What does this fold into?
Amino acid sequence: FFFSSRRRHTRFKCDWSSDVCSSDLPAGGAVVALAAQNGVNSALAGAAGLVACAFALSTADRWLRRGQPHERAWTVAMALFSLGSFSLWWAESTGWSSGVFRLFFLTGAVLNVPWLGLGTVYLLFGSRIGHAARTVLVVLSGYAVGIITTSPMHGAIDPSELPTAKEHFGTVPRILAGVGSGLPAVVIIVGAVWSAIRVLRGRIPAVTNTARRTALRPGLLALGNGLIALGAIVLSASGTLAGRLGKDQAFAVTLVIGIIILFAGFVVASNAVSARRNARSVSAMLAATPSPSH
It folds into this structure.
């Protein structure tokens, strides 16, 4: 859901992101308007990258302290999201090139969402299934890196237009992007909604016993899962806003808003649960602690 094949129209006679055509403006005014729009898009992409960096640092810190595999998967996903966002920021600021587009396409369209979805698999199905999925994902990630970095590109990249995979890549890279963005996004959204419903019904938000977690604050956990699902949906909603904001700006706006909502959902949900093994450890420590009467 990160990547969107949106074309820029600002270099054409009519800018679709505005009701005013460049032919109606003085030449200098059109240039200033275009530069201002690119500046806004660059700022939004840069903001999304910074939020994703904060997200990655937060999950990395928790993983190093707690050793939970889903937090490691989220760290990888947010690192990829950061690379994709900063490549968009660079392209909006200096112009597109084949190298920048390959990086943007690889990290955003192909790799980012599967690693985020891997975190959901760990949370719902436990370590056994999660480790198997991780092994498959590592192999597929390596394959995707090789394909995207070596596949020939058709036609020259226009620095002033957001490239499209349909115009510049063959079939295999586009299949990787479709599968990489579509299926994991469904897993994330459905998993988050299902978990929220389970919590509100007083049930454990996991499919297997090995994945069970203790809901310290069920209402807060349901809210966190709802935010995660909403963030994923927002990241997929750039087409809805394209008619009002223009396709490029709609993509940038949904990018920054979506990652902020995802980050908020992670923070809320993480503070509402504890792993089952941690809960057992705490119970054992309390049981072993001498009572005041002793």
